[in-house]
Amino acid sequence: MSRLKSRLAPTLSILLIIALISGCASLTKSWIAPEVALTGLRIKELSLLRQVFVVTLAVRNPNDRTLPITALTYRIKLEGSELAQGSSQLDRQIPPLGTAPVDVEVVSSLLGISQQLPALALKDRPLDWTVSGTASLANGLLPLPYRWSGQIDPKALLSALSGGSPGIQGVSLGHH
């Protein structure tokens, strides 16, 4: 009987180690970066040197578990030119496979936008936009870089930028 126990002990130890390793692997399952789309824009503050916008981003969680975002950095480009950039401290729990709106403030120089307005006004096609940055989890210990793009109606964008409407809404989620 003791001989059987001495033979089973190493086998049971190996099985226990395998179970622990597989359990730890599920705890460190890698995250998929969120999908981020530009869905709204409105002016918050205008001055000669800068403009402050509130940008609404739709953040979609492609993971099968809640995505706990603690910070977000973002850079927004329109037709390849930088429109604005910023960062926000957040405490957002994006549900598994769900989408949640996130309002962030971005700062842009008036000079940069005023140079782009004439060219934007002449466009008869949707404008290409790109949103890129990093979503931080675990208080910044786990950064998830993202980059998404899509298109927006130039008339809605120009109206929002000139203060003619409360902003743009309803831009569809972009693509990688």
Number of structural units classed as domains = 2
Counting DSSP H or I runs of 4 or more residues, the number of helices is: 3
End-to-end span in angstroms? 63 Å
Structural class: alpha+beta
Helix content: 25-40%
Quick tags:
176 residues, alpha+beta, 4-stranded antiparallel β-sheet, 8 strands
Architecture blueprint of SSEs:
Elements: H1 2-27, E1 35-46, E2 51-60, E3 67-78, E4 81-94, E5 99-108, H2 110-121, E6 127-137, E7 142-152, H3 154-161, E8 168-169
Antiparallel strand pairs: 1-2, 1-8, 2-5, 3-4, 3-6, 6-7
Short description:
The chain is 26% helix and 47% strand.
What features would you describe in this structure?
With 176 residues, the chain is an alpha+beta fold. It is built from three helices and eight strands; from the N terminus they run αβββββαββαβ. The protein has two domains: 1-30; 35-169, Immunoglobulin-like. A four-stranded antiparallel sheet has the order 5-2-1-8. Strands 4-3-6-7 form a four-stranded antiparallel sheet. The N and C termini lie far apart (63 Å). Mean pLDDT is 75; it is low at 19-27 and 165-176.
